Amino acid sequence: MYIPPKLQLDQAQACELIKREPFALLISAEGGIEASHLPLILSDCGTRLYGHMARANPQWQELDGKSVLAVFSGPHAYISPSWYAKGPAVPTWNYTAVQVTGRVTLLEGEQAMDTLMQTVNRFEPGLLSGALMPTDYVARLSAAIVVFEIQIEKIEGKAKLGQQRKPDDQQGVTAGLEASTHREASALLAEMYRLNLGLGQDEKASE
């Protein structure tokens, strides 16, 4: 991923995006490019990703011991050139994203079941203690999936939020996103405030 230095997320910020936006695109390229859309869970120490896919999905058959790319997309939205203080200007798309490269190990037995339970607990704590997912039912269905871990080799994070532009342009984009009725605009603006990027506030305060 092309990341100019000013747009780079640090390791902690990249890991935070993965935790908030766990639905990923998992790409492999052994014997042809394959891709699956699925949630991936980041370990507490940020060294591994865990996930599973349907056993009927042929992608898993080429994964064990192989390198993969996982792409996590954060908030994103269209940016109108009319929001900038001065022209000429062109439209663009602002976004946050993280790419992870690593090597896959297929998991079996208790390790696979533990990983699956951690995934369920991540999204709906307490579900396993209810009647919807009794232990024997989960064990029976687990035969239809393949569980895996990815040993992380590299994490790259990017926040293209207009922080490289002049303060008045940043403030114009902030106002444009605030006025927009698109849900993507609201999500992107919330991300800008969370990261304190592209708002033009620091520069304005120092003038």
Can you count the helices?
6
Spans of at least 5 consecutive residues whose pLDDT stays below 50 are 203-207
Instruction: Return the structural class.
Output: alpha+beta
Order of helices and strands: EHEEEEEEHHEHHH
Taking the alpha carbons of the first and last residues, their distance comes to 35 Å
Oligomer state equals single chain
Q: What about the largest sheet?
A: 8 strands, antiparallel
Q: Beta-sheet strand percentage?
A: 25-35%
The amount of helix comes to 25-40%
Mean residue pLDDT: 93
Radius of gyration: 20 Å
Tell me, briefly, the overall form.
elongated
Total beta-strand segments: 8
Compact overview of the structure:
Helices cover about 30% and strands about 35% of the residues. It contains six helices and eight strands; from the N terminus they run βαββββββααβααα. It has helices spanning about 10-20, 110-125, 135-140, 165-180, 185-195, 200-205, and strands at about 10, 25-30, 35-40, 40, 50-55, 65-80, 90-105, 145-160.
